[in-house]
From TrEMBL:
GO terms for molecular function: calcium ion binding; calcium-dependent phospholipid binding; cytoskeletal protein binding; phosphatidylserine binding; phospholipase inhibitor activity. The keyword Transmembrane does not apply. This is Annexin. Keywords: Annexin, Basement membrane, Calcium, Calcium/phospholipid-binding, Extracellular matrix, Phosphoprotein, Repeat, Secreted. Its main location: secreted. It is found in: Secreted, Extracellular space, Extracellular matrix, Basement membrane. The keyword NADP does not apply. SMART domains: ANX (SM00335). Pfam families: Annexin (PF00191). GO terms for cellular component: basement membrane; cytoplasm; nucleus; plasma membrane; vesicle membrane.
Amino acid sequence: MALVSEFLGQLTLSYGGEEEPKFPTVVPVRDFDAARDAARIETAIKTKGVDEQTIIDILTRRSAEQRREIAFEYERIAKKDLSVALKGALSGSLEALLLGLMKSTAQYDASELKASMKGLGTDEETLIELVCSRNNEELAEIKKAYREMFKKELEKDISGDTSGNFAKLLLALVQTRRDEPSNVVDYQKIDDDARVLYEAGVKRKGTDVGSWISIMSQRSIPHLQKVFERYKSYSPYDMKESIKKEVKGDLEKSFLTLVECFENRQLYFANKLYEAMKSKGAKEKVVTRILVSRCEVDLMRIRTEFKRQHKKSLYQTIAEHTKGDYQKALLSLCGGDD
Ligand SMILES: [Ca+2]
């Protein structure tokens, strides 16, 4: 028995501090030649009416690192910035997608966050998705990119654009104080947290949102999964039902996004893609954002969850709900049918 527990201990230990495994659909191309790609893009941009197909073929089938090298070579050959040249040559959703690909994943997320808070009003849907679905490591990289790109702290912009408990929750998440997964399962703490979540919400009049925020922003994800399971032994409603009963509006959407991502982050993205393409046409902004930001992270697993949940492949769904060059670019990022 001692041997078995030692073995299990080691298994969880080795999982401990490691990064989440990646499941990309976009991977580095072999026999890569940045100068050749840059020259082909320059020709495509100069072609009368623009040769979008060539630009799509190249930029959607190279890794972020390779695209960065192409941009460097392009500037050397054409004496201008590739993103500026693409902006001049393309338009609409295709332009947004390809310009997104010219940034690193963290830079892209940072610029989407900036855009969601720009000017009067706030695009809460984007803000909630980006802050509540990203893990600690991603959020730390996004904050760094945000600081470098906009010379401002992400926290500062969020607190200027949001208020009340919604602001408190987002700021608590952006502080990235979540525990790393531990190799020791603390049953006492699981039970305590489950009881506190219940007593702060369903059990009392009103809601002690502060208690919910501190538990959901500071505990590790494996711990929270067990807390939500334990929660059901205290509350007649599961955690998601409790959230719907206790809070409303953006705060409700944020807590629901968090819990869905704790449960299965790739299923959350699959469902968002499904919702964005449910009716005629597509919410192109959402589709672009998820494909561009996840194609080098976990889009392969999002595809699997999509097919499993909705009985139709992501590829087929994109093919039915989008069109033209934009569709070609999306399908290429999607990487294949399931
Ligand atoms: Ca209550």
